[in-house]
Design a protein that fits this description.
CATH class of the largest domain in chain A: Alpha Beta
Helix content of chain C: 25-40%
Helix content of chain A: 40-55%
CATH topology of the largest domain in chain C: Rossmann fold
Shape of chain A: elongated
Number of strands of chain C: 17
Strand order of the largest sheet of chain A: 2-1-3-4
Strand content of chain C: 5-15%
Radius of gyration of chain C: 26 Å
Distance between the termini of chain A: 25 Å
Shape of chain C: globular
Number of domains of chain A: 2
Chains: A alpha+beta (166), B alpha/beta (725), C alpha/beta (610)
Largest sheet of chain A: 4 strands, mixed
Largest interface: A-C, 47 and 59 residues
Oligomer: heterotrimer
Structural class of chain C: alpha/beta
Structural class of chain A: alpha+beta
Strand order of the largest sheet of chain C: 10-9-13-11-12
Number of helices of chain A: 7
CATH architecture of the largest domain in chain C: 3-Layer(aba) Sandwich
Chain lengths: 166, 725, 610
């Protein structure tokens, strides 16, 4: 994985090389690459003068960070309590069987990453499936399969690395 | 003084003490797993829970600061139940066949059970068997069966690193190794990663320790309560029968070590109270028990080298010495006890023989006076691998100075481990003194150093208003005092340097080896490169030399010797014999005494006339024919003239000190790959070495660690050639 | 600075709810469409469209309210908009079809304040919800915002403020209910010049979203509350820690902070009183345990959020070792009202021990999902039936779960329990942050307990064995039960681990983790026993204990189920009775959803058919 030192420097310097901003820096790095490449962690560790192991420890502790590349489409199934009692486990099962991956993993063809989340706070729509940031509320087992099919045929939006103004 | 009541017993507590400390001091036992007296309180294992009057829920004694009038109970039925239950939970992630087997008692004697648990599940094959703190706890709490289903983590044992294995299936996540690594050693190699039931201890990306900045001090191994971290050399030796406190003689710091002895064998060396380094922890026992060690006298006879009795060998030696008398040259290692050195001086003196200075030095040794280092201080470390060579000294300094000291490293070869410093300056070799000058006083900005003005300014800010102490290894470069406010301390990596320099000498190593007046060489613990033939070569050592000799006298290591050593601060320390010398080896001082007896000489104190004077090295400029600069660095990882890497494989992987270090560009230029053999050619000589490619080296330099051929090309320009194998 | 349009300029205002629930239901599309349509009808000068914070009635999103008439439109679709603009905005005839209709038989309720869901609520913290644009500080000031700050800074000493907060009886809304005034006082008395205050917005309880809603709908009230608190404790730096799952809340909070600073209500020399206070927003990264205060502090410091043993409490040694006061979002939002209306007024609301109001997120098997603010002491029944409108599809109420993973389930016979800190604790649950998950007869209590335990197990930081392994073993045991492998003695086993986890865990996460199991064991023991002894799931939820079968008498042979079955487990020809092959069936439940209602032939049975 090639990392762009310039982009990373920009992210780190945004936080004034402050050690306490490690989590925020990693969040921005993840936004840039959609995952945390090891080289990027090394870079951050050096820039912020934080031992690499501490950076790694933080990156593995928090759920928001992914140390493996993610698929073209990220499917997030909410497993909040409201979703759970309204049948989210069945929905998850259905999607899991359809994609043949466990939550947290990416399909072999790199098309889908299946994730679960503990609550999105949109309980009125329970059970919720979010694909690439789009909410699909009141999902049923049947609807879940349809949603996946829809994205299966869809070409992914080209990911343009965002360049912010200086 | 505060008064607290524990289990009805009135105890006094000092300010800031925890309840656990008070209890331990008062002889009240509270079980604990994650607590260690040298580490900060953690409160993770939940075994030291106690009840405090006025609190509903139990509190951990290790984190509870004692306050006046506290009433504590440590042993109520509820606490006992909770502790047992917590321990059961711990056991549900730790293989426990070794802990609760009903036939455990007879196992050591009879091994009657054929149904041994698999190796991975513990039983008697766990290296920590009988010294496991978990075993003690299970015994104390009288746990006979397991309540919870055992969940084996099924992780592979990591054996890629030198010296120790890591089997995280046995880890109980007490975090002691992590805290030891961070708090005591400042190494930051280990940390918890992931979370919840998936939490594990490890390095970043699960890389081997070799690639994670580990110093291999072994602090984590020694502090581990279970067998998760295990010393590979002693893993099956069980708990020691006895320990003998002695002084490690592998470097000038002279750390106190405990030699663990079982069945008359030194199984390993562990720190005695304080810290030690990789050498003291992982080199001593393997050297003593080395399979290639020679423990019988040898003599060259017509039909080759054969084993002989001591009498015959001594007879031969005394005859040869009598023969050559003042045409004898004595070369000896500083890593001998003071007594051995004195005897060699005396023997040489009574023969009017020549004695060579046993170590290289460009400045007269001075004691490192730690008491002089105080107040707000800036420590400038020049061309010295503080973490690699003087780690325990660095720890002492950091502990002494707390946060009052700033560290500045000046070294063209600063390693990643030098990042402990507040700033690292990488000047062109040879300009170090100028940088020290500009930092300490009104100096000219050293443009030729290649360091930017901003970096110098940052360093100047760190120095401002502080006392400056310059630490440097004189065999690498000589730094002189540049102003009144600055003090310099040469660091000598060899023990006894101060004592031996006071005794004086007749010539240097090189002078002796090139002198035409020497017919007989007597080598004690040194392995120089012999340039010519000698009438007689007598070797007194532990390992065979790589040249011809007439007599080989098997010497005992310092672990088998009684005596004294003088450390870097000029303190005399006791060296104690832990076991009888192996085979027929004898301590050096006794061998010399025996020779004197055989020659009917009385050994009296003698000393040489020459003393060490300061000599600054000059760097020769590179040119087209020799475009690289060879930098020779002192190798502090040696024992009796041999690099530790040459005798112990682990050190080779840790140090790569038998390779010539170059950076990627140099490698590309000369068409060399990592590990390829290269000839290093200088004007006067050349030698062959494998190359090690490293990113932290500057352009156009070759770094080698001190060895006889390299020494002759020190500071000279060289070129490299790929050697066809 | 951009000129903000004054409220008075318009004849009518359309307030489009832009809480996360409505946004997920495409509220922004609705707003855009409204603006377009209004422009098309050339009404742009007369009618303003404003996005507001969460209205609370998420079930009915997206919501549009027309002010000043107070007409409440719900479940808006893009296609309804031209009609709405034409009828109501142009012709002045409210559109009945878009109004709230409680049940098919009843008449539409046009006015917001007449809707049952809103009628019973008492808004203090959420006073500004849905009536102002959270991204515009002028509107907050227009509704008397920052008045309390002015009073506190110019007319009250720090001691007075603390006295007032103490007298109000305000208790921490984050869960444990520690008296807020006392907490402030402790921190104030701590020696040292540098201190911090933190607003805990790491609302991790699944099914709870009141903090999010407050931050989204009324961020200034939190800022104002924090500034008053800072003055009282003499602090000059504050942090707001927000979950990473709440991007909208972070965005609005940041806007609010910069506006407050612009107006001199934050930063240096606030209101010319020489008092400096600064707030920084810190985002979490997805760890429930960071809601625990010591873990949260570690997280702000950029470290792994592992709690440490208290004491020392954060009020002695907190952020970077300095005395730190932590309160949650809702607590801070209460402060301005206490200062401006007085402790006496505040303490007149609520019960003897618990004063003021509390926000609950009412979710699960309930008709009116949403956010409600009610006075303490209200009964469960009032919340669930009067405000929540009861259980959908006429099903039977079974239990309500409060307090998230740290709380417990309260059964039907306790519906008349007045809600306050003590009564909930006594019932084995806790107030928690205010999640209220309603469960009906189709909810399996063993499954719910397993769900929560699985949650805490995954979210445990891994530091101490009782929490790390104890919760895991509890999950194993519960898992076994839901899989039909329950054993005699499992219940006692669960109880004994629960006891240990509760008493010897390091932090609140572990100490409260067994609550869901303990309360379900207390009130629904029979369900556990059915799982273990009869291998039967009474609620027909646990997959391994149920089977899907087709009722021969009802099956119309329409083949819909067979066509939809993903594992080809249903056989049968058209017009003939279908059967499910239990060997092939993966129990995905599709057949039951696709079976036409006129037949309704697919049934779940438990124990499973062999």
């Amino acid at each position: 994985m090639k990392i762009n030192a310039k982009d990373l420097s920009r992210i780190v310097s945004k936080y004034h090389d402050e050690k306490s901003s490690l989590i925020a820096v990693l969040q921005d790095v993840q936004e840039e690459y959609h995952w945390l490449p090891p080289e990027a962690l090394r870079f951050v560790s050096e820039k912020l003068c934080i031992p690499l192991i501490d950076v790694y420890s933080v990156a593995t502790f928090y759920r928001a960070f992914s140390l493996t590349p993610r698929g073209e489409h990220v499917v997030t199934v909410c497993l909040g309590t409201a979703c759970h009692v309204r049948g989210a486990p069945l929905v998850l099962d259905r999607i899991r069987n359809r994609l043949r991956v466990e939550p947290g993993c990416t399909t072999g063809d790199g098309k889908f990453t299946l994730e679960s989340v503990n609550c999105l706070g949109a309980c009125a729509l329970a059970p919720i499936v979010v694909v690439d940031g789009k909410y699909h509320g009141q999902t049923t087992v049947k609807k879940a399969a349809q949603i996946i099919e829809e994205y299966h045929t869809k070409r992914p939006k080209k990911r343009v690395t965002r360049r912010r103004k200086k | 003084m505060m008064r607290i009541t524990i289990n009805g017993k009135k105890c006094t507590a000092r300010y800031g003490e925890t309840v656990l400390q008070v209890a331990q001091r008062s002889g009240i036992r509270i079980p604990t797993l994650c607590h260690h007296k040298d580490l900060s309180p953690y409160g993770g294992c939940r075994l030291c829970i106690v009840d405090m009057k006025g609190k509903q829920t139990p509190l951990t004694a290790c984190t509870l600061t004692a306050e006046d009038g506290m009433v504590i109970k440590t042993d109520t039925p509820r606490l006992r139940k909770l502790r047992r239950s917590t321990l059961q939970l711990i056991l549900s992630e730790h293989p426990s066949a070794c802990l609760i087997c009903e036939r455990e008692k007879d196992c050591d004697n009879f091994q009657e059970c054929i149904k041994k648990s698999a190796v991975t599940f513990g039983c008697k094959s766990c290296p920590q068997n009988n010294k496991c703190e978990l075993q003690d706890l299970v015994r104390d709490m009288d746990i006979k069966d397991l309540h919870f289903e055992f969940r084996y983590r099924n992780l592979e044992t990591q054996r890629d690193d030198p010296f120790f294995d890591r089997d995280y299936n046995l880890c109980v996540l007490c975090g002691r190794c992590i805290r030891a690594c961070h708090e005591i050693r400042h190494a930051h190699t280990l940390e918890f990663h992931h979370r919840g039931p998936k939490t594990l201890v490890g390095t970043a990306f699960d890389l081997p320790h070799l690639e994670s900045g580990c110093q291999f001090c072994g602090a984590c191994v020694d502090i581990c309560p279970t067998g998760a971290l295990r010393d590979r050399f002693s893993r099956y030796d069980g708990p020691p029968e006895r320990t003998v406190k002695t002084t490690c003689m592998l470097c000038s710091i002279g750390c106190a070590v405990d030699l663990n002895v079982s069945n008359g064998k030194i199984t390993c060396s562990t720190p005695h109270k304080d810290q030690i380094c990789a050498r003291g922890r992982f080199a001593i026992a393997p050297i003593v028990n080395h399979p290639r060690r020679i423990t019988k006298p040898l003599m060259k006879k017509r039909d080759g080298v054969i084993e002989v009795e001591w009498d015959e060998a001594l007879e031969c030696v005394s005859q040869k010495l009598r023969e050559h008398r003042n045409r004898t040259g004595f070369l000896f290692s500083p890593q001998l006890t003071v007594e051995a050195a004195e005897n060699i001086y005396a023997l040489g003196g009574s023969l009017s023989a020549k004695l060579a200075m046993p170590f290289l030095s460009n400045v007269p040794p001075r004691p490192l006076a730690l008491s002089e280092i105080k107040g707000k201080a800036a420590m400038i470390i020049v061309n010295t691998d503080m973490v690699g060579d003087y780690s325990v000294l660095l720890l002492t300094l950091r502990r002494k100075m707390k946060d009052r000291a700033t560290f500045i490293v000046i070294d063209a070869f600063a390693r990643p481990s030098d990042r402990f410093a507040d700033t690292v300056l990488k000047p062109n070799p040879g300009t170090e003194q100028k940088i020290v000058d500009v930092l300490c006083g009104p100096g000219r900005f050293p443009k030729e150093s290649g360091i930017s003005a901003a970096e110098i300014e940052l360093a100047q800010r760190l120095v401002k208003g502080k006392k400056v102490y310059v630490l440097y290894d004189p065999s690498n470069s000589v730094i002189e005092k540049s102003s009144k406010s600055c003090k310099t301390f040469p660091l000598f990596s060899q023990p006894n340097a101060l004592r031996i320099s006071r005794m004086g000498f007749h010539c240097t190593h090189e002078e002796m080896l090139t002198s035409k007046n020497i017919d007989c060489l007597y080598l004690v613990g040194v392995a120089p490169k012999l340039e010519r033939k000698y009438g007689t070569v007598i070797v007194q050592d532990c390992f065979l030399p790589d040249f011809d000799f007439d007599v080989f006298l098997p010497a005992a290591t310092f672990a088998e010797t009684d005596g004294q050593m003088v450390d870097i601060e000029d303190r005399t320390k006791r060296v104690r014999r832990a076991i009888e010398p192996i085979g027929r080896a004898m301590p050096d001082d006794m061998i010399v005494e025996a020779i004197a007896r055989a020659m009917d000489l009385r050994l009296t104190k003698k000393s040489g006339k020459r003393k060490i004077v300061t000599k600054r090295a000059t760097l020769r400029k590179t040119n087209r024919a020799y475009p690289l600069r060879l930098i020779v660095r002192e190798n502090a990882y040696t024992y009796r003239g041999k690099t530790l890497s040459a005798i112990l494989r682990g050190f080779d992987r840790l140090r790569h000190d038998r390779s010539a270090w170059i950076n990627e560009n140099t490698a590309k230029k000369f068409g060399l790959r990592d590990g390829a053999r290269a000839t290093i050619i200088g004007r006067r000589t050349s030698f062959i070495m494998p190359v090690k490619i490293s990113s932290y080296l500057p352009q156009s330099t070759v770094l080698v660690f001190d060895h006889p051929s390299a020494r002759r090309l020190k500071n000279e320009p060289v070129r490299l050639e790929c050697t066809k194998s | 600075m951009k000129r903000r349009r004054k409220t008075e300029e318009f004849r009518l205002h359309l307030l489009v709810c832009a809480g996360t629930g409505c946004v997920a239901n495409h509220a922004f599309d609705i707003k855009e469409e409204l603006q377009k349509e209004i422009a098309r009808k050339k009404l742009s000068d007369e009618i303003g469209v404003v996005t507001t914070g969460c209205q609370g009635f998420c079930e009915r999103g997206p919501i549009v309210i027309v002010q000043p008439d107070g007409i409440f439109y719900q479940r808006m679709k893009k296609k309804d908009i031209p009609h709405l603009v034409e009828e109501h905005l142009l012709k002045g005839r409210p559109v009945k079809e878009l109004m709230y209709i409680p049940s098919p038989r009843e008449a539409p309720v046009p006015k917001m304040m007449d809707i049952e869901f809103f009628k019973h609520q008492r808004l203090i913290i959420l006073r500004n919800r849905g009536r102002l644009d959270p991204e515009n500080i002028d509107e907050y000031i227009g509704f008397n915002g920052y008045q309390a700050l002015e009073i506190a800074l110019t007319r009250m000493t720090p001691e007075r403020i603390i006295k007032e907060v103490k007298a109000s009886g305000l208790r921490g809304r984050g869960g444990a209910g520690f008296p807020t005034g006392m907490k402030w006082d402790l921190c104030r008395r701590e020696p040292g010049r540098i201190k911090y205050i933190i607003c805990n917005g790491d609302e991790g309880d699944p099914g709870a979203f009141m903090d999010r809603s407050v931050l989204e709908a009324d961020p200034h009230s939190v800022i104002e509350g924090m500034t008053i608190g800072a003055r009282a404790i003499s602090v000059h730096k504050g942090f707001v820690y927000v979950r990473s799952e709440y991007p909208l809340a972070v965005k609005r909070l940041k806007i609010a902070l910069s506006q407050a600073e612009e107006y001199g209500l934050l930063g240096k020399d606030i209101l010319g009183t020489n008092f400096d206070f600064d707030i920084e927003v810190v985002q979490g990264a997805g760890a429930f345990v960071c809601g625990e205060e010591t873990a949260l502090i570690a997280s702000i410091e950029g470290k792994v959020g592992r709690p440490r043993q208290r004491p020392p409490y954060p009020s002695e040694k907190g952020l970077w070792g300095k005395p730190t006061n932590i309160n949650n979002v809702e607590t801070w939002a209460n402060v301005p009202m206490i200062i401006s209306r007085g402790a006496k007024w505040f303490s007149s609301i609520g019960t003897k021990t618990s004063k003021g109001t509390k926000i609950f997120s009412l979710v699960g098997k309930i008709n009116n999902t949403g956010l409600v603010e009610v006075p303490m002491g209200i009964t469960m029944r009032e919340i669930i039936y009067d405000i929540g409108g009861g259980i959908p599809q006429g099903k039977e109420f079974k239990a309500v779960q409060t307090g998230g993973p740290s709380g417990g389930c309260i059964p039907k016979n306790m519906l008349d329990l007045p809600i306050d800190y003590e009564s909930l604790t006594q019932a084995g649950s806790m107030m928690g942050s205010g999640g209220m998950i309603v469960m009906d007869e189709d909810t399996c209590m063993v499954d719910v307990a397993r769900y929560f335990l699985n949650f805490t197990q995954e979210e445990s930081c891994g530091k101490c064995p009782p929490c790390r392994m104890g919760t895991k073993h509890m999950v194993y045991t519960l898992d076994r039960k839901t899989k039909g492998k329950g054993r005699e003695g499992d219940i006692q086993f669960l109880e004994s681990i629960a006891e240990n986890v509760k008493l010897s865990s390091l932090c609140g996460l572990g100490q409260t983790a067994p609550h869901p199991v303990l309360t379900t064991l207390r009130y629904f023991r029979d369900e556990y026993e059915a799982h273990i002894k009869e291998k039967r799931c009474p609620a027909l939820v646990c997959k391994d204990l149920i089977s899907y079968v087709i009722d021969d008498k009802l099956c119309g042979g329409c083949t819909v189920c067979a066509k939809n079955c993903p594992s080809d487990a249903i056989s049968g020809e058209p017009k003939k009775i279908h059967t499910i092959d239990q060997q092939k069936c993966t129990k995905c439940g599709i057949c039951i959803t696709v079976c036409p209602p006129k037949f309704n032939a697919v049934k779940k049975v438990s124990p499973a058919v062999k």
